[in-house]
């Protein structure tokens, strides 16, 4: 494999998709998970992708994409909601570590999206800062309702697309890097039952097969 910083955005995405296929097929190779890799990385890291995903315990990035130490710069929050500290962390992965790819990773039956749907449809409130998370997801639900969506997983896809747009709209660093071709910001949706990660927003801004 080339040095991660030498990868194009398309090559980085392909590495993730290859790893996910191995995971789904039960053929995981568990690369870069041994003592020699640990020693190699002690002085410096060169991850090839920033993974901004939901905190759900079933979305362990290095496992579902069959990667190892130093491969992914991972940022996770419930419902992949993005505050300033998240944006700063993602920008660090791109501008300092040189990652050519940012992935927004959502998943089916997302609890945060479900809670936002319940809040919109039934006025259900969540305690403490959980309510803040739900509030940040609610605009995606409202947009979905306005578009006539009814299926929960359609709202998940919409929330992934809106998160991709939000990252690019709020971060000049990410927007400029993507405009220059040095970066792609994409969105994937993970299926809990079979472990597959489907492209919702590809490098061109559209879903891929």
TrEMBL record:
InterPro entries: Carbonic_anhydrase (IPR001765), Carbonic_anhydrase_CS (IPR015892), Carbonic_anhydrase_sf (IPR036874). It comes from the Bacteria. It catalyses: hydrogencarbonate + H(+) = CO2 + H2O. It holds the Pfam family Pro_CA. Gene3D superfamilies: Carbonic anhydrase. Its EC number is 4.2.1.1. It is an enzyme of class 4 (lyase). Keywords: Lyase, Zinc. Belongs to the beta-class carbonic anhydrase family. Catalyzes the reversible hydration of carbon dioxide to form bicarbonate. This is carbonic anhydrase. It comes from Streptacidiphilus cavernicola.
